[in-house]
Amino acid sequence: MDNTLYKQYQQMLKKEKRFVRLYQLIILLAFFGGWELLSRFGWIDRLIFSSPTHVWHTLVEKVSDGSLTLHVGVTLMETIIGFIAGTLLGTLIAIVLWWSPMISKVLDPYLVILNAMPKVALGPILIVALGPGYFSIIAMGALISIIITTIVVYTAFKGVDPNFSKVLQTFGATRWQIFKEVILPASFPTIISTLKVNVGLSWVGVIVGEFLVSSKGLGYLIIYGFQVFNFNLVLMSLLIIAFFATIMYQVVELIEKMLVKNNG
Q: Are 58 and 233 spatial neighbours (Cβ–Cβ below 8 Å)?
């Protein structure tokens, strides 16, 4: 009986998932279909908003001449490195803060100030300090997510029930063992949520960095398209960014499922 109910529940979940996918597809088709119709009937400015068919022709042209692969490859490389660096450094700082309450108390107001500061404003300083190259752009991608990662993960560490740590302390566990066995596993859901946020932040940091200094990448294509009034190029770059950001988000969700499965 219980097995039958479980199967019915699983079938209901699968059915619901199919409906969700269907509605998502309908929204996507309605968006591009509506955009195309508005452009064809002249209800929106074709110069600024273009149309899906014109953007598609630009995409085919850029793929054919081989230039798009270079620009996408550069931006992807910068974003992935910035994403990993920002997440790892932010988590590492959070561990240091959890490890040393004194350091946490000293740095607390500075974290609040740094979090409130618009990190993209530091772009020109990074470019002068690190040079106009990949390194400064990757640093922008990492910098924009470090502070928020530190604050969110450290808050998750502090939020773990102290009774779990006390139980291990009574058995003589070291601080490292408490962190490894209790604090870190209990904070995995928050760390995964931070990864999802950092996907978007890393793209923002890298694109802003490419706006400022790069001669390659999707950020460069956007700013170049704006300068020559080629909004097909701008919209094509934005859609490619949305596509790859979605893939990165899906990869993080896959990691989340694997962690839940292993810890379940």
A: yes
